[in-house]
Structures are given as structure tokens and as C-alpha cells.
Amino acid sequence: MEEIWVEKYRPETLEEVVGQESITERLRSYVRTRNVPNMLFAGPAGVGKTTCAHALSHELYGDSWSDNFTELNASDERGIDVVRDKIKNFARTSPVGDADYKLIFLDESDALTRDAQPALRRTMEMYTNTCRFILSCNYSSNLIDPIQSRCTVFRFSPVDDDAVTERLRLIADEEGVEVTEGGYDALAYVADGDVRRAVNALQAASALGETVDEDTVYETTSTAREEEIEALLENAVAGDFGEAREILDDLLDVKGISGGDLIDQMHRAATEIDADDSTQVRLMDRIGETDYRISTGGDERIQIEAFLAGLATDDARQG
Length: 319
Ligand SMILES: Nc1ncnc2c1ncn2[C@@H]1O[C@H](COP(=O)(O)OP(=O)(O)OP(=O)(O)O)[C@@H](O)[C@H]1O
Known about the structure:
Keywords: ATP-binding, DNA replication, Nucleotide-binding
CATH class of the largest domain: Alpha Beta
Helix content: 55-70%
GO molecular function: ATP binding; ATP hydrolysis activity; DNA binding; DNA clamp loader activity
Number of domains: 3
CATH topology of the largest domain: Rossmann fold
Largest sheet: 5 strands, parallel
Distance between the termini: 56 Å
InterPro entries: AAA+_ATPase, ATPase_AAA_core, DNA_pol3_clamp-load_cplx_C, DNA_Rep/Repair_Clamp_Loader, P-loop_NTPase, Rep_factor-C_ssu_arc, Rep_factorC_C, RFC_lid
Subunit structure: Heteromultimer composed of small subunits (RfcS) and large subunits (RfcL).
Number of strands: 5
Order of helices and strands: HHEHHEHEHEHEHHHHHHHHHH
GO cellular component, one term: DNA replication factor C complex
CATH superfamily of the largest domain: P-loop containing nucleotide triphosphate hydrolases
Bound molecules: adenosine-5'-triphosphate
């Protein structure tokens, strides 16, 4: 079976990480001084948090990186006790080579319950002489202050389209895959700042064995085109519920796109469509409400139709 490209092309050096320059610059300065603090990597999925932790350990430890680096998942259902045992086992042997300490990468640290977090804090303190911790999380606000205050915080942002495209070009060249400029634009749109999603989309689209263009990208990722989403919203806002509903049926039934994904795309498109400020405000408000209803179990089609109907009525258009 073909290797998964996100792993095959995981950067091994900080230099290769795209779109997070200020972070990689600071990490490189730690490598130069060989002085690494406990760190918190916060940010959305697929933007390079795990990758930076791996690359840092490669640059710090060279060939002995795998002896001095370990990766654990805090959301492991067996909980903090297992994590603690694993940390203890790893930390009690001395660092290998000329390393002063080992690195422990704790993924999804914000998945730990508030009750379990003080135990993590104590564990960090207990091994502070032999280990440095890198905690990764999507939302740093889920972590208790005593953990945050013991870490240098790095906020990872969604990666911008140019940087995503740069990475995709390199992978496509290595793999000998032809991609049109429209194909790259579509991949960047689908990725929405998530490099993992971009690389997976490229691999899926290239599996068709053709040149990768807009059509192959939207088809293989089951994503609506930006224009289709804008047309859907513009028709509803203009009061044409029938037309909006036809577009919706095509997206849900023919193209097989999920209602949740459509709402996410509508959220992205809401500020792009041709509408005045107050319409956009109402649009955002209704998108939020519909997203909530779907996430709490409401039927996707009914909720989105109700959303479009609401927009198409006078009260939605005029307040
Ligand atoms: N900034 C980046 N530069 C280059 N490749 C990247 C970058 N971010 C992600 N990737 C690619 O996406 C894959 C997944 O990235 P990574 O594991 O670093 O995500 P993450 O931010 O830790 O996400 P999660 O919160 O889901 O764990 C990597 O193996 C790599 O191929």
C-alpha cells in the first residue's frame, strides 16, 4: 500500500516547516543555546505543532533523537496515571549522548480533565531536571493557569494559502504529480489553513491518475466550490428560496457534501458575498444558530432549509 504522504513528507527540520516562521526562529535559537524551556504549543489541527516538536528533537539530538524524545497522548482513555507511568519510565534513564535532558511531547493536553491537570503539573515539576515538556493543545484556555504559567506559550496560526501551496508544490514535484494553478487554489481553499488536510487532499486527488485540477480536488474531497456556496447564500438573501433550495439539494444529494461541512463553508463565505453589513450580521447570527442545532443533533437538511427560509423572508432581509 502506498505510504501516507502526511507522514512521508513530515518535515524533519525546522527549516522545512512552512508558515510558522516566527515560531521556528525562536525554536532554532533554543537549539543554538541548547536551552529549552517547558513549552505549550497551542493552535488548530494540522498546522505543525507535532511536526515542530519532532523537528526540534532532531536538531537538538541528531542521531540519538529517538532515545531522547517521546510522544504521549494525554487523551489516552486510561488517563493521567498511565501517562505518569510512561513519563516516569522514560525520565528515569539518563539522556543519551551529550543531551542534558530529554523531551516529552504530550499531545492533546487540553483533553485532560481539570481534576487530572494538577497531577500533570506535579509530574512536570518532579522531572524538571531531566526532562522538558512540550504540551500541545487546540485551546490553551482549557488548561489550568499553573500549567500555562510554567510554559513558554507558542500560538500556532492557520497556515496561509501561499505557504500551503509552497509545501504542496514540493510534494507534487517529488511525486511527479501534475497540478494546475486552479488545482493549487482549490487545494488551498479546501485546506483552510490546515496543511495536513491539504496534503491528504493532494494525495486523494492524485490517486485518480490524472492531472490534478479544480474538478478533481472538489470531487475527491466532497467540498462545495466557493462560487456555489456564495450563490446559495446570495439567492437566499435576495429572497429566492426556490433557487437556494435547488442549489442545496444538488450539494447534499448529488455531490454528497455533509450539512456540517456546508455550514462551515457558509461561515467562511458570509463576509465575501455581496450584501450590506446588517445582512452579514444577521447571516452570521443564523449560521451560528444552525451550526449549534446541527451539532446538538438537529437534522442537517431541515436545519439548513430552515436557515435558508429564514434568510429569504422579509424579516431576515430587513431586520
Ligand atoms: N507548518 C507545516 N509545514 C509543513 N508541513 C506541515 C505543517 N503543518 C502540518 N504539516 C503536515 O501535516 C502533517 C500533520 O501535522 P502536525 O502533526 O504537525 O499537526 P498538529 O498541528 O500537531 O495537529 P494536531 O493538533 O491535529 O495534532 C505533518 O506530518 C506534515 O506533513
